[in-house]
Amino acid sequence: MNSPAKPENPLLSLFVNILLPVMILNKGGQYLTPTQTLIVALCLPLVYGLQDYVRRGHKNYVSLIGILNILLTGSLALMSLTGVWFAVKEASLPAVLGLLVFGSAFTRKPAARMMFCNPQVLKMDVIESRLQEREKSPEFNQLLKKTTLWLSASFFLSAIANFVLAYSIFKTIDTTLDADAQLRVLNEQLAQMTWMGYVVIALPLMIFSGVLIFAFLKRVSKMVDLPIDHLLNS
C-alpha cells in the first residue's frame, strides 16, 4: 500500500510559482532569447502543477486552474497580443470561478461544503451527529449557503482588482520595436504582474479566506456546542 504524499510545502510553492518565474522574466534575457525566457518562466509553474497532480493522485483544482492560466498567458504572448487582452485574461478566471461558486450556493453541494467540510480536517461525523441531535441541520445549511456567497464575492472582487492592476501594467507596446524587443518588454510586464498580483491581490484574499474559515468554524462550534479544537482532526 502506497503511503500518502507529504503535504505541499508552501515555501517551495511560493518560490516555484512566483519568485522563480519573476527572476527568470527579469534576468533571463541575459542568457536566453525573449521567447525562450517566456517559455521557461511559464513552464516552471506548469511542471510544478502537473507533478503535484501526479504525485498526490487526485485532482488539485487550484493547480489545474493555475495551469489553465499559464496556457492562456503563453498563448496571448506568443500571439503577440498585449494591453487590454491581458487585463481581460487576468479578470476572466476569478470571474468565472465567482460565477461557479455563486451558482453552487443554490445547490445541494455549495462550494463552502466542498472546501471547508473536509473529513480529513474536520470531524464531520461528530458535527453532523450533533447537528441532528440539536436540530441545527437547517441552520447549518443556511450557514453553508451564506459562506458560499461570501466566497463568490471574494472572487468577484479579485476579478475587478486583477483587471485594474493588469490594465495599469500591460501598456500597449511600441510596434516600431523589433519582435524580440517587444517580447522583452512583455516579459517585464508579466514579471511585474506576477509579483504585484500576489502581494496586492492574492495575499489579501488569503487573509480574507482565513477570516472566513475562522468565522465559519466559530458558528459551527456554537451550533454543536463544542469548542473549535474538538471539531478538528488531530
Your description of this structure?
- This protein is an all-alpha fold and 234 residues long.
- It has helices at residues 10-27, 34-56, 61-78, 84-104, 111-116, 124-133, 137-169, 179-224.
- Helix 1 (10-27) packs antiparallel against helix 8 (179-224).
- The relative contact order is 0.13.
- The mean pLDDT is 84.
Q: What number is the mean pLDDT?
A: 84
Determine the structural class based on helices, strands and strand pairing: mainly alpha
Oligomeric category = single chain
Low-confidence runs of at least 5 consecutive residues: none
Report the radius of gyration as a whole number of Å: 21 Å
What's the number of helices? Answer: 8
H and E order? HHHHHHHH
Assign a percent range to the helix content.
over 70%
Q: How many strands, which pairing sense, and closed or not: the largest β-sheet?
A: none
Compute the separation of the termini in Å: 23 Å
What percentage of amino acids are in beta strands? Answer: under 5%
**Gross morphology:** elongated
Task: Give the beta-strand count.
Answer: 0
